């Protein structure tokens, strides 16, 4: 056997088995849902106005009041909201939610690269991406819960703004897709197929 033939044989031996249509479809849907969650979370962080209560708008970056003429007056000094601990407590909240977006983007990148590159490390990249998506869930959920605790005296179910619900849905999608990504990877692992034969 020639050197080229031996090298081709070795490359064929290291190739992954062909994926089924349903596996490809499910992985593509996971990637799509993670991308949607990243967009929702990014919108939520950039806007940052999460709660409207009693003519006041509480946010990650601003505190706003609505005057009689429906003019929104916003300030960046959150101590003017006169909510105990808000000005200092919102700093870790905004840090966590911003970091969650960054981690989710890296996780999404690993998920996409694992599907494009058919190498021996593709499954490991998929697992790493799924773990990063779960880390994004933990950061997002912690920030949503922490913000709710900070403004607990002003909470009403209808007071939460659309951007708050964007972050809530994004956290849920991060959890769902992180768990699904790990599960589909464990179901389609080549060692499991060999064990079933």
Indicate the low-confidence ranges by residue numbers. Answer: 192-197
Helix-strand pattern = HHEEEEHHHH
Q: Using the CA coordinates, give the radius of gyration.
A: 23 Å
Principal-axes shape call? elongated
Strand content: 5-15%
Q: What is the topology, as strand order, of the major beta sheet?
A: 1-2-3-4
Main β sheet profile = 4 strands, antiparallel
Helix content: 55-70%
| Backbone structural class | alpha+beta
State the end-to-end CA separation.
31 Å
Task: Give the number of DSSP strands.
Answer: 4
Average pLDDT rating: 83
Total number of helices:
6
Short overview:
The chain is an alpha+beta fold and 197 residues long. The chain has helices at residues 3-14, 21-47, 86-116, 122-150, 162-187, 190-196, and strands at 49-53, 56-59, 63-66, 72-75. The relative contact order is 0.17.
Give the arrangement of secondary structure elements:
Blueprint: H1 3-14, H2 21-47, E1 49-53, E2 56-59, E3 63-66, E4 72-75, H3 86-116, H4 122-150, H5 162-187, H6 190-196
Antiparallel strand pairs: 1-2, 2-3, 3-4
Helix pairs in contact: 2-3, 2-5, 3-4, 4-5
Describe the structure.
With 197 residues, the protein is of the alpha+beta class. Helix content is 67%, strand content 9%. It is built from six helices and four strands, in the order ααββββαααα. It has helices spanning 3-14, 21-47, 86-116, 122-150, 162-187, 190-196; strands spanning 49-53, 56-59, 63-66, 72-75. It has a four-stranded antiparallel sheet. Strand 2 and strand 3 (63-66) form a beta hairpin. Mean pLDDT is 83; it is low at 192-197.
């Amino acid at each position: 056997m020639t050197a080229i033939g031996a090298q081709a044989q070795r490359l064929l031996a290291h190739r992954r088995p062909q994926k089924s249509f349903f596996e490809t479809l499910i992985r593509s849907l996971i990637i799509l849902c993670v991308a949607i969650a990243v967009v929702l979370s990014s919108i939520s962080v950039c806007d940052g106005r999460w709660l409207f209560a009693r003519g006041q708008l509480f946010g990650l970056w601003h505190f706003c009041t609505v005057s009689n003429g429906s003019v929104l007056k916003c300030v960046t000094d959150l101590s003017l909201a006169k909510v105990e601990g808000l000005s200092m407590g919102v700093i870790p909240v905004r840090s966590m939610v911003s970091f969650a977006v960054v981690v989710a983007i890296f996780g999404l990148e690993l998920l996409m690269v694992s599907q494009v590159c058919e190498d021996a490390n593709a499954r490991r990249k998929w697992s790493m991406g799924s773990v990063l998506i779960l880390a994004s869930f933990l950061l997002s959920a912690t920030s949503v819960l922490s913000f709710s605790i900070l403004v607990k005296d002003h909470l009403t179910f209808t007071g939460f703004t659309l951007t708050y619900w964007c972050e809530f849905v994004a956290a849920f999608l991060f959890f769902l897709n992180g768990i699904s990504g790990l599960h589909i990877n464990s179901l389609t692992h080549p060692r499991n197929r060999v064990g079933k034969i």
